[in-house]
Design goal:
heterodimer, A: alpha/beta, ten-stranded mixed sheet, two-stranded antiparallel ribbon, 11 helices, about 30% helix, B: alpha/beta, seven-stranded mixed sheet, binds thiamine diphosphate, binds iron/sulfur cluster
């Protein structure tokens, strides 16, 4: 285990954001992950995204399960409340937290073991409920923290560090999320910050559950020849198919209703609830990031051809998130005055007339 | 035999008998007579046998009894066993549309035949209506046989069907048909009969699950997460109904609550913990299998110190067990739920009235002690209607939110740490997400020191664990105290819990009539308070009465108090039916005789 110093050269702009905070203010304690671990790059991208979005750190709740990936919330936003929960159980805890306080921005960090094995059910149901959260799945194809067992996202035929060949099918969180009705589905690579940061920003601006699957090589247990989640393999097979940028509200004319109008081969704008815009700058011929079925078959076809398509692959800004579906009051439930919750003694008396 | 008898109704599940049976029970209640109704139903939706037992007792002994004066035999499939259950000299009311098999006839009981099926064919149209009305017709017969006040019955029908004249007419007709037939053919009333009293004037008829929902509503719970399971499901049904009534803004239609039907109990408890972490009062309701699933996260809430209220309406285990039968089999499971050193706060309501107050109190305790709190009810309390004093609420009540620092509190501190300093109760102040960056901390189920930082250091780890133990110990003075009743010259004590209450009191009265004087203690909270310790110290011989095989309460007492195992004799009933006084009397007398035999003369 080595400690990674965060070189200031990585953050040349220590210039304050709109809140007067620098990127430093969005960092956490020093990472204790292996040097070169993909997860650390994702942490840096998350830090950057929050900084650039001018989010007050204390208005963020960062939650995770258990695993190397799930350790990372300590490494960003030290000014936010964090919750390193139990293996595979973060989605439910995040859901309950969101139920209690809808004012906070939620980020859940998980691994492929945490999300696709022990926690598959919880992740699926958080998607189904469309909980308003950014969900980062740091996908390395192995169980890092328990030392290199295959995870459910290990590709068939890929080799473990110990030479074993994986005989089983791989679960693809992107296809899974699409089929479960996720309203925001993206895939990126931990080494591609220029792609990842805008995706994270768009995901945070999105109202609803935003799944961001990030291929994140495990240098210690899954970065060898034969692994399909190694740096080398990923660089060779990742293909950015959909390029998207996130543009804050004040950069565009005031938005009317939400539109999703994609023209193939060109660029398109999608306006989110907060007035910000996701600008798709590169869309392949015949691809429509608003057409769920088309995206599913596109991703499938690519996968069969051995290509891992990345980018903001699917976006439906119109889905109704958990609180909208519940018709929850605007004030966070945790902050409602007791007087507005208790019907009082007189009401109890009246009610009990029907218990006679 | 006036106002002291029991009768049982044998029906077929799914035929609409439940409403007729509760109509009878409610009518007797409105006549001011102490009454109880026990619904013995199968884990099935339609077609299997189901029973309803009604006991009236002018002295208020309304625990379950197995001695039936009258059987209302409406299920031909169970005739034989049902008829067998009637005490000699009793009565059997049956449908004489078909002849009874001669072998079922007993010479020591009186058979009262009413051709219910034929009456319904003659008087009602559709098949479903005939089936449903048959129940109302037998209710009419019972009104005549037992002298139930017909004005009360008519009044209840009017309340129920007033807005639906057609239903009103057919129900009124059905009652009349049954009533008139009895008056014409039998000597009414029977020697077992009712006479109006005034003991239930300021009482209500309520089941424990509704009372728990009310407790949660009044305590200000805003988040509830659950996964359906008998017998706890109706807690959430009732909570939802109450919230729709009291927590929806009439103008905007917006809800001041969020009820989450989780994908399983692992998620349900996770949601409660997430909401509690964020400062909402949150709860879940489940039964044994759900507690098993929740155990991992219960330990997380214990160690990370997050408030959570968990209602366990106990049913028969192990495994799926008998989902529609009652037991107190989760006492040890809940006391120590989860791996590692964990110990929780338990509240044991003994009736619906306590369900209401204890549930509200559970939220205060959970927030005061920043810990999971279990409310251990059971199927008997939860799903049966009980007569209890009218519930009262003190409008000056304000939630005890425990130690939560505001933004201003934090500004005044040089530095904030999550798990120190502690107060005299062993509690450290928490902060809620969204308050301020200065109060931000990292919640973890992994090893942490008193500042909240990750640790693998033995001393730092122990320091936090020792404080948690102190905190738990302090809570003994905050959980509801045991209920104690003493008799002069008592030679033994009975220690019991929860729904055993009525049967044990009745047993003590009966034992006293036979010269065996016993004191009474009903545990209502865990950790056990000082009053439990001193009761145990004062008695050489105690019987611990409970509804499980392994004497779990007795085990918990021996583990957590200074009592010697040899002082505690065990009386257990665990077949799944509510406890009866005669079971307790028989066991106590037997064990007293046994110990007397062993003593040298
Ligand atoms: C209930 C439970 N079972 C098993 C474990 C052990 N465990 C810890 S992390 C982990 C796998 C983590 O894999 P992943 O989520 O992919 O994260 P990574 O370490 O690869 O980032 C396992 C099996 C646990 N903590 N809890
Ligand atoms: S074991 Fe793998 S996943 Fe874990 S920290 Fe090391 S490189 Fe990262």
């Amino acid at each position: 285990m080595s400690y990674i110093k965060k070189p200031s050269a990585r953050n040349p702009s220590l210039k304050p954001n709109a809140l007067g905070l620098t990127v430093r203010d969005y960092e956490g304690v020093m990472s204790t992950l292996c040097a070169g671990c993909g997860h650390d790059s994702i942490t840096a991208a998350i830090t950057r995204a929050f900084y650039e979005l001018d989010v007050p750190p204390h208005m963020v709740a960062k939650l995770s399960g258990i695993g190397c990936s799930s350790k990372t919330p300590t490494y960003f936003l030290s000014g936010a409340h964090g919750f390193n929960s139990a293996h595979g159980r973060m989605p439910a805890i995040l859901t309950g937290a969101s139920a209690a306080n809808r004012d906070l921005t939620y980020i859940g960090v998980s691994g492929d073991g945490d999300s696709l094995s022990i926690g598959l059910g919880q992740m699926a149901h958080a998607i189904r409920r469309n909980v308003d959260a950014l969900y980062v799945l740091e996908n390395n194809g192995v169980y890092g923290l328990t030392k290199g067992q295959f995870s459910a996202s290990a590709d068939p035929g890929s080799k473990s560090k110990y030479g074993e060949t994986n005989p089983q099918q791989a679960m693809d969180p992107v296809l899974l999320a699409l089929s479960l009705g996720a309203t925001f589905v993206a895939r990126s690579f931990s080494g591609d910050k220029s792609q990842l940061v805008p995706i994270l920003k768009a995901a945070l601006a999105h109202r609803g559950f935003a799944l961001v699957d990030v291929i994140s090589p495990c240098v210690t247990f899954n970065d060898h020849e034969g692994s399909t989640k190694s740096y080398r393999y990923t660089r060779q097979h990742d293909q950015e198919v959909v390029e998207a940028d996130w543009i804050p509200p004040d950069f565009v004319p005031p938005a009317g209703e939400i539109t999703a109008d994609y023209a193939a081969g060109t660029s398109a704008d999608v306006t989110l609830h907060d007035g910000s815009v996701v600008r798709f700058t590169k869309i392949p011929e015949g691809y429509d990031p608003g057409d769920r079925d088309a995206v599913v078959s596109y991703v499938r076809r690519k996968r069969t051809a051995g290509v891992v398509p990345t980018g903001l692959l699917f976006l439906d800004p119109g889905g109704s998130e958990m609180h909208a579906a519940n018709r929850t009051v605007a004030t966070p439930l945790a902050q409602l005055p007791y007087e507005s919750l208790c019907p009082g003694a007189a009401a109890l008396d009246a009610l009990q007339r029907s218990y006679r | 035999m006036v106002n002291r008898f029991a009768f049982k109704l044998a029906n077929v599940n799914g035929t609409g008998s439940a409403s007729a049976n509760s109509l009878l029970m409610q009518a007797i209640f409105r006549m001011g007579i102490p009454v109880s109704g026990k619904n013995l139903f199968p884990s099935n939706i339609q077609g299997l046998p189901t029973w309803y037992e009604i006991r009236v007792d002018r002295d208020g002994h309304t625990a379950r009894t197995a001695r039936f004066d009258l059987m209302v035999a409406m299920n031909a499939e169970t005739y034989e066993a049902d008829i067998d259950e009637v005490r000699p000299g009793g009565w059997v009311l049956f449908d004489s549309s078909w002849p009874l098999k001669p072998s079922f006839l007993r010479t020591d009981v009186t058979f009262l035949g009413v051709p219910y099926a034929n009456i319904c064919i003659e008087n009602f149209g559709a098949a479903r209506e005939r089936t449903l009305m048959k129940n109302i017709v037998y209710a009419g017969t019972l009104a005549a046989l037992l002298d139930i006040d017909m004005d009360v019955v008519q009044g209840m029908l009017a309340e129920k069907f007033g807005a639906k004249p057609k239903l009103m007419a057919s129900n009124a007709k059905a009652i009349r048909l049954g009533y008139d037939y009895a008056k014409e053919h039998f000597a009414c009333p029977l020697p077992i009969r009712l006479e109006a009293m005034d003991t239930t004037a300021d009482t209500i008829l309520i089941n424990g699950n509704t009372a728990i929902a009310l407790g949660a509503l009044y305590a200000g719970a805003t988040v509830a997460a659950w996964y359906p399971i008998t017998p706890s499901t109706s807690v959430l049904d009732a909570f939802k109904e109450l919230c729709e009534e009291y927590r929806v803004d009439p103008e905007t239609n917006e809800r001041r609550y969020c009820i989450l039907q989780a994908e399983d109990e692992l998620a349900a408890i996770g949601m409660v913990i997430g909401a509690g972490w964020n400062g909402a009062r949150a709860f879940t309701a489940t039964s044994g299998p759900g507690i098993s699933l929740m155990s991992e996260l219960v330990g997380l809430a214990y160690y990370a110190e997050i408030p959570a209220v968990i209602v366990d309406v106990q049913r028969v285990g192990p495994s799926t067990g008998m989902p529609t039968r009652t037991q107190q089999g989760d006492i040890l499971l809940c006391a120590y739920a989860s791996h590692g050193d964990t110990k929780h706060l338990l509240l044991f309501p003994g009736n619906p009235e306590e369900c209401f107050h204890f549930t509200a109190r559970a939220f205060d305790l959970a927030e005061r002690f920043q810990a999971p709190v279990f409310v251990l009810s059971d199927l008997d309390i939860g799903m049966n209607d009980w007569v209890v004093p009218r519930l009262t609420w003190d409008d000056s009540y304000r939630p005890d939110r425990g130690r939560v620092l505001s933004r201003e509190d934090l500004e005044a501190l040089p530095k904030y740490h999550r798990y120190s300093p502690e107060d005299w109760q062993g509690v450290a102040a928490r902060t809620l997400p969204g308050t301020s960056s200065k109060g931000a901390f990292f919640t973890r189920g992994s090893g942490h020191n008193k500042h909240g930082g990750y640790t693998e250091d033995p001393d730092e780890y122990r320091e936090v664990m020792d404080r948690l133990a102190r905190k738990h110990w302090t809570a003994r003075n905050f959980v509801p105290p045991a209920l104690i009743e003493t008799r002069p010259n008592a030679s033994f004590g009975i220690v019991t819990v929860g729904s055993c209450d009525l049967a044990v009191r009745e047993a003590l009265a009966e034992l006293a009539e036979n010269g065996l004087m016993g004191d009474y203690l009903r545990v209502r909270g865990f950790p056990f308070g000082p009053e439990v310790e001193s009761f145990l110290r004062r008695h050489d011989r105690m019987f611990v009465v409970e509804q499980n095989r392994d004497a779990q309460l007795r085990s918990l007492l021996t583990l957590e108090t200074g009592v010697a195992k040899a002082q505690l004799f065990s009386v257990r009933a665990y077949g799944g039916l509510p406890l009866q006084a005669d079971q307790v009397v028989r066991e106590v007398v037997h064990q007293i005789r046994e110990t007397e035999k062993e003593r040298p003369a």
